[in-house]
Amino acid sequence: MSVARFWRETLRRYNLGASKCPECQTVFFPPRSVCPQCTVHRKSMTKMEPCQLSGKGEIFSYTTVYEAADGFEMQVPYVLALVKMAEGPVLTGQVVDVDPKEVHEGMPVKATFRKLREDGDSGVIHYGYKFAIVRSPTASK
Ligand SMILES: [Zn+2]
């Protein structure tokens, strides 16, 4: 794969492309070609519309991970959260740049793109989304 192609693919992934059902307005991430909810109600022929997630959401649930997974050189402990996006879908991702003790449910977060890991043999760097805490400018520390 050429560098340009690789970069385009990467950018596409960065955009959090989702799909929205025009019938029931449900947003799916990753995008789906049919709406499972409307399929049940036999309205599956409606066309899904591509849309973008804003990247904004809030922590719905989280867990603190103390052991790094194989192939992931992450600093432990780190926080893995279920994030309910503003548009509805729930995404799983690591919460970065935060003390695990500071994290609580309902915290506003924003998707950010970080290096996930580097492939030692090929030198390919893998990127993916993670979540950063949205800190209120008025909050004092
Ligand atoms: Zn639907």
Between the first and last Cα atoms, what is the distance in angstroms? Answer: 47 Å
Radius of gyration, in Å, reads 18 Å
What's the number of extended β-strand segments? 8
- What's the total helix number? 2
**Order of the strands making up the biggest sheet:** 4-5-6-8-7
Q: In the CATH scheme, what's the topology name of one domain?
A: OB fold (Dihydrolipoamide Acetyltransferase, E2P)
Question: Architecture of one domain in CATH?
Answer: Beta Barrel
Low-confidence stretches: none
Judging from the principal axes of the Cα atoms, what is the shape?
globular
Q: Give the names of the bound compounds.
A: zinc ion
User: Could you spell the SSE succession in H and E letters?
Assistant: HEEHEEEEEE
Average of per-residue pLDDT values:
81
Helical/strand content category:
mainly beta
Give structural notes.
The protein is mainly β and 141 residues long. A hairpin with a 6-residue loop joins β7 (108-118) and β8. It contains two helices and eight strands. It has a domain at 54-136: OB fold (Dihydrolipoamide Acetyltransferase, E2P), CATH 2.40.50. It has helices at residues 3-14, 36-40, and strands spanning 17-20, 27-28, 49-52, 56-65, 78-85, 90-96, 108-118, 125-133. The chain has a five-stranded mixed barrel with strand order 4-5-6-8-7. Strands 2-1-3 form a three-stranded antiparallel sheet. It is globular and about 45 Å long. Residues 21, 23-24, 26, 35, 37-38 line the site of zinc ion (ZN). Zinc ion binds at residues 21, 23-24, 26, 35, 37-38.
